[in-house]
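Hello again,

I reread your note about wanting to compare the complex against the isolated chains. To keep things tidy I'm splitting this into two emails, and this first one only covers the full assembly. Below are the input lines as submitted, including protein chains and any nucleic acid or small-molecule components. They are followed by the predicted structure of everything together. The single-chain runs will come separately.
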Amino acid sequence: MRKGEETRTRILDVAEAAVLQKGFGGTSIEELIAETGITKSGFFYHFRDKNALAKALLERYIENDERIYDEIFSRARELADDPLQSFLLGLKLLAELLSDLPNGHPGCLVATVCYYERLFDRDIQETNKQAVLAWRRRFRGMFEEIMVVYTPREPIEIDQLADMVSTVLEGGIVLSKALKEPQGLADQVLVLRSFVKLLFQPPIVRQ
Amino acid sequence: MRKGEETRTRILDVAEAAVLQKGFGGTSIEELIAETGITKSGFFYHFRDKNALAKALLERYIENDERIYDEIFSRARELADDPLQSFLLGLKLLAELLSDLPNGHPGCLVATVCYYERLFDRDIQETNKQAVLAWRRRFRGMFEEIMVVYTPREPIEIDQLADMVSTVLEGGIVLSKALKEPQGLADQVLVLRSFVKLLFQPPIVRQ
DNA sequence: CGAAAACCGTACCGGCGGTACAGGGGATCT
DNA sequence: AGATCCCCTGTACCGCCGGTACGGTTTTCG
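Full-complex prediction:
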């Protein structure tokens, strides 16, 4: 039980790093077992096939992702009473966290999966979809609280605004990976922060 | 000569669709030659190996991408004199174009490549990087023109602002693919449009 | 007509995903 | 102390795929 879980985790760790660098199709099971120090039989004891590995990988990634967002934005909530200030602070904390990643963001498994749709069954695609919808609900909730206090200075759909946060994160990851500029992702989050600030903060009226 | 080009193009067409759905690793040469109606020898006559195919695919994609941006934003330039209005119109035209894609955006090869870094040589990665830098230069140029006339209402790095356009496109593609909501991408572009509008347009001063 | 371009056919190699199945060591329960 | 799981190892095998090699053939163009 204990040992099994540990081996399983080790496989997932190795697999996650490999998949984010080479994609699912580019990652061979043989290289995973070589790096994990396990045999092929051992691998198939833990995962029925590559699809099962992908599913476990994705679910673990999403769970961890949610945990990080929970931590960041609940901390931001503690530090600021105003919902807008709290959200802006959350984005700042997120940018700091992303900025502190030594080799930049390793990549998002949700993005990887969506660029591999035809390779996996509907189950995985549905899991992926639900993850994005969970992001939407999370940020939508925050914007709803903000809109109780503030009026947006441009007409905007709240779901689309919520999705913008995920969009900037996913897009920022792509750009910073392609450019090999790890800092780029955090910068893009801060640009989004400026936009949200502009959207809700009342204009400075000249007297 | 003529026929060769045509066959090559057909291979690239088939390969592009396959790669965007299953990634490079998930796309087999055998399936490409089956669908193209060519033999394996024929394939390797046109492309030395999978890497060469990837490079040709990426270069063609980038070229086409640039052409589309050229068209859209030069048309927007004709229709509006003011650089801000022209840019905002360009984003609207882009959103319309994305909205009209029957099955949604098929996916961006630049994103695919950046999630496959370890599978390709430095040459391809450099090509990819240059493509993103070209986007940056394009949009930076537009924002520079805007800033001659307008002052941003929030302090912002112009390169980061330029990258925001690419970020939203890449991120929007990921989200709309994951959610299977083709409209999502165009919506995100329009949210970006609202943000840019807010950033540069002077606030409506209440009297 | 001749030469180059654009393929086809065949044979082969090693790697990989996946299956099957037999067995073994170690912890745990009875 | 013995039985029973869990957690693997070892071996053998299959078919697909990327890639190489190379000889031959058709098509196209000058």
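For quick reference: The radius of gyration of chain A is 20 Å.

B.
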